[in-house]
Specification:
With about 375 residues, this protein is an alpha+beta fold. It has 2 domains: about 260 residues, Serine Threonine Protein Phosphatase 5, Tetratricopeptide repeat; about 110 residues, Sandwich (Immunoglobulin-like). The chain has 17 helices and 8 strands. The longest helix is centred in the N-terminal third of the chain and has 15 residues.
């Protein structure tokens, strides 16, 4: 599932998509009361968040479909429409029949199918081919762990890319928008067994999901992930190398030395910071900082460097909170010094609130902080 703004995600379940769902169900189930369904599904919709909209549509479906679960599921599956083409995985219109409107149908299965595991798994497999059952499968991981894990192992080799991706995406310990999986946060080894089988999947869509899952795991078990990916890196193909780097992104930003070493970034001997400076020490919100970096190295051998900078933003309580920004990957040696510049905008964004006062900028090279600068932010 592609990440988008919360408002777009919420609005993808609206009058248009609910009306389309109603029409599709009516076309395969003549007894379906479209009017009642749409009244219940659309009630006070403008004041509901995404998860509340999912729940409301799911409840409206329950009210208007047959009480028999198997009968109701058969109707929903018949109304799904064609599968998403496996060679066209990007650019899905979230308000379309392939968008978020599938999620209430998945939630219908998760809420009302607990006593019919076989039918529920069949339904989620079909629904995930149209969008994703990654949220609903988590309910069964909690309630029917052994059976669900066995089902996931069978899906690892499924011919459909969406079903294979469900294995890696549905088991992410901290999947955005959905409930966490405390079992896998505490012990991710069962997940790693699944990811190992999928690491060389021929579809990037699956490999990216594997990397995202490992990135989740790395936040609680960094050594487990670096040990695993160190082994995977031996003789790794280009595709697997990409997966490894993507999976390590959080640890790389934190300057984790084991993660950096996997990608060939080791401490640089005889490295000197000749200059790390800002063009101003006072800046007004909406302005721009210009950084200057001058590095030299007395070692003859060329060394690989991951150069980042860390901005310590002032918080409401007066403390400083770090945010790592990528700068560049370069090589340095005695005969290859390095001079660089970088612009950094201090502007309003939806994910950060700025506060006036002292801020810091740190230079981070291969995980080590080598220099610091300061600036005052004025509102």
């Amino acid at each position: 599932m592609t990440a988008n703004s919360p408002s777009l995600l919420r609005d993808s379940i609206g009058k248009k998509s609910i009306g389309q769902l109603s029409d599709r169900i009516k076309s395969v189930y003549q007894e379906f009361n479209e009017t009642q369904f749409e009244i219940e599904a659309l009630d006070n919709l403008q004041n509901l968040g995404l998860n509340e909209r999912i729940a409301q549509v799911r409840i409206a479906l329950k009210a208007c479909l047959p009480n028999d679960f198997q009968h109701a599921v058969a109707i929903l599956i018949k109304a799904l429409g064609p599968e998403i083409a496996q060679d066209n995985l990007d650019g899905v219109d979230l308000t379309s029949p392939y968008g978020f409107i599938v999620l209430p149908q998945c939630e219908f299965v998760a809420h009302y199918g607990q006593d019919d595991f076989k039918t529920s798994m069949m339904a989620l497999m079909e629904m995930t081919k149209r969008f994703s059952s990654e949220g609903a499968i988590r309910v069964f991981i909690d309630s029917h762990y052994d059976e669900t894990y066995q089902q996931l192992t069978q899906w690892m080799t499924h011919e459909n890319v969406h079903v294979r991706r469900l294995v890696s995406e549905g088991t992410r310990p901290k999947l955005p928008l959905f409930s966490r999986l405390p079992r896998f946060i505490k012990d991710p080894k069962p997940v790693i067994n699944l990811l190992t089988a999928l690491k060389d999947d021929h579809q990037l869509y699956v490999r990216r999901s594997v990397a995202n899952n490992l990135n989740d795991i790395s936040k609680d078990h960094p050594k487990l992930v670096t040990d695993l990916l160190s082994n995977w890196s031996v003789g790794a193909s280009h595709d697997r190398q990409w997966l490894i780097k993507h999976a390590l992104r959080t640890l790389l930003k934190k300057g984790d030395q084991a993660a950096l070493a996997i990608l060939g970034f080791t401490p640089v001997p005889k490295l000197t910071v000749k200059q790390f400076s800002l063009d101003k020490t006072n800046i007004i919100l909406g302005g721009e900082l210009n950084m200057v970096l001058d590095l030299s190295c007395e070692h003859l051998k060329s060394h690989k460097m991951m150069i980042d900078y860390v901005v310590y933003h002032k918080k409401a309580n007066g403390t400083l909170s770090p945010k790592v920004f990528k700068w560049a990957q370069k090589f340095i040696s005695l005969n290859q010094p390095l001079k660089m510049t970088k612009k950094h905008a201090i502007k309003k964004i939806s994910t950060r609130k700025y506060y006036p006062g002292a801020h810091e900028v740190h230079l981070q090279v291969n995980g080590d902080i080598l220099a610091k600068c300061h600036f005052m932010l004025h509102m």
